[in-house]
């Protein structure tokens, strides 16, 4: 499995107990669809490849999970997994429903302003901090568009369009 074909579910923050359990921080909005996970891919800190791990038990509480992997039966074995990132294949992403989208889905979509028309294509999405941003090239400059309902009122996945209502001056920054 290639990392480009996956999304990061979270990471292992620390060991838990003496029998190989680990604490996982989940980087998802809704952790409930992951309550029945049977396996994940781990990217260990000393390796850049994804390794499948099968789950014996998983107990999710909010954005944290207590996980026991098969064949990890001691604190020493679990310690080797600390800081490893957990991944799942992109096709395992839960369906968001009408009008919602994952950021990776809109890369390459056409950005269309209601007054200015077609502006460019989504090159990337920066996440983190207090604001997620669409990255677009416009007339040779990188433009960052904050993702919120007033500036990005609609995304049409079928037509591969991101509709925006940009305020005056945003394209001139």
Give the gist of this structure.
With 173 residues, the chain is mainly beta. Helix content is 3%, strand content 45%.
Radius of gyration: 20 Å
Query: Segments where pLDDT lies below 50 for 5+ residues?
Result: none
Give the overall silhouette: elongated
Order of neighbouring strands in the sheet with most strands:
1-2-5-4-3-6
**How would a textbook summarize the main sheet?**
6 strands, antiparallel, barrel
Strand runs, count: 12
Structural class: mainly beta
Report, as a whole number of angstroms, the end-to-end distance. 40 Å
Residue-averaged pLDDT? 91
Portion in strands: over 45%
Helix content: under 10%
Number of helices: 1
Order of helices and strands: EEEEEHEEEEEEE
Structure explained in plain terms:
The protein is mostly beta strands. The protein has one helix at about 75-80, and strands at about 5-15, 20-25, 40-45, 50-60, 65-70, 85-90, 110-115, 115-125, 135-140, 140-145, 155, 160-165. The longest helix has 5 residues, at about 75-80. The radius of gyration is 20 Å and the shape is elongated. The model has no long low-confidence stretch (mean pLDDT about 90).
């Amino acid at each position: 499995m290639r990392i480009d074909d996956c999304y990061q579910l979270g990471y292992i923050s620390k060991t838990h107990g003496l029998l190989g359990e680990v604490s996982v921080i989940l980087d998802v909005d809704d952790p409930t669809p992951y309550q029945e996970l049977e396996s994940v891919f781990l990217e260990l800190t000393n390796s850049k490849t994804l390794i499948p791990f099968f789950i014996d038990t998983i107990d999710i509480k909010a954005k944290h999970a207590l996980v026991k992997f098969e064949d990890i039966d001691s604190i020493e074995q679990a310690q080797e997994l600390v800081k490893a990132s957990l991944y799942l294949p992109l096709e395992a992403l839960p369906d968001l429903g009408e009008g919602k989208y994952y950021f990776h889905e809109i890369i390459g979509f056409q950005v269309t302003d209601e007054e200015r028309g077609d502006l460019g294509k989504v090159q990337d999405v920066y996440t983190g901090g207090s604001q997620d941003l669409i990255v677009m090239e416009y007339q040779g400059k990188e433009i960052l568009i904050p993702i919120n309902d007033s500036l990005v009122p609609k995304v049409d996945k079928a037509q591969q369009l991101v509709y925006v209502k940009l305020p005056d001056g945003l394209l001139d920054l």
